[in-house]
Amino acid sequence: MNKAATLTAWASLLLPISSTYATSVYGPELEGFAYPYAVERFAFSSQQQPLSMAYMDVSPKGEANGRIAVLLHGKNFCAATWESSIEVLSNAGYRVIAPDQIGFCRSSKPRGYQFSFGQLADNTHALLNSLDIDKATIIGHSMGGMLAARFALNHPDQVEQLVLVNPIGLEDWQQAGVPYATIDQMYQGQLNISYQDMKNYQLKFYYNGEWKPEYDRWVDMAYGMYAGPGKELVAWNQAQTADMLFTQPVVHDFPNIQAPTLLLIGGKDRTAPGANRAPEPVAKRLGQYPELGRKTAEAIPNATLLEFPELGHSPQVEAPEVFHEALLRGLQAL
């Protein structure tokens, strides 16, 4: 694949490529990376195969408030990325469940699996049922926001409150004019991932051009699986899930969401899968989060919008104190 094609394929996955960089090496299920809390396993069968879903189940450290928060990670993130949010919520009296979705991080990496937001939502629903959880606050970030929205649509009785943190999927990229890239093209792009451009991408889109040493841990986490022996399978699942998020928009279903919804939007975010392969006039219109956040708040019947104008795609990592103060305030408003 030539350089231009590789850049196009990888940009569509929200991560760039470039030179090599020494980093930690992890197994295909993120073996070797330390999670902040004990990791448990939910074994189940899906699409005629046995699978294992990793998750953290953290009890309240403060006085229990009787509520449960379920944290859904983004595409280039893991349950471990919620580390500071888990601590804050637990201290505030919440029981916190943070799973790794099938195909990601500590969970199974099936070679043959039809990835869909409906399937991942059902897997999460089955996990909560196994833990006897009837109601929960569902909090999703980035791709996890798309999944959280689909979960709220498919399993409304299980959702006490919905929280979307800089979710992608607030627009339909394909409808907007972004060309389709095949899974094979995505996969070839994934195989060329490097540490340094992954870091450069996060610097630009996640942290608004200002890097802090504590961010290195999350680049190391994300890239370590590509440096390890399971690179090809990790890359294949990432290509499959890239196709999922591009071809399965949730934006058109926002008016059908019943749960009270809190939108937490970093205004500097410009994330738009596939924008680099779109014509320039199309690309310029995509990922305008201040506008997208307001349109989404209007589309979801019972939505409240809290904006962070100076923050980017990951406000919970970039400015945890500011973010968590707003999150707790929004949760208490229920």
UniProtKB/TrEMBL annotation:
Residues 70-320 form the AB hydrolase-1 domain. Residues 1-22 form the signal peptide. The keyword Signal applies. It comes from the Bacteria. InterPro entries: AB_hydrolase_1 (IPR000073), AB_hydrolase_fold (IPR029058), AB_hydrolase_sf (IPR050266), Epox_hydrolase-like (IPR000639). GO terms for biological process: acylglycerol catabolic process. GO terms for cellular component: membrane. GO terms for molecular function: monoacylglycerol lipase activity. Keywords: Signal. Coiled coil: none annotated. This is Pimeloyl-ACP methyl ester carboxylesterase. The lineage of its organism: Bacteria, Pseudomonadati, Pseudomonadota, Gammaproteobacteria, Pseudomonadales.
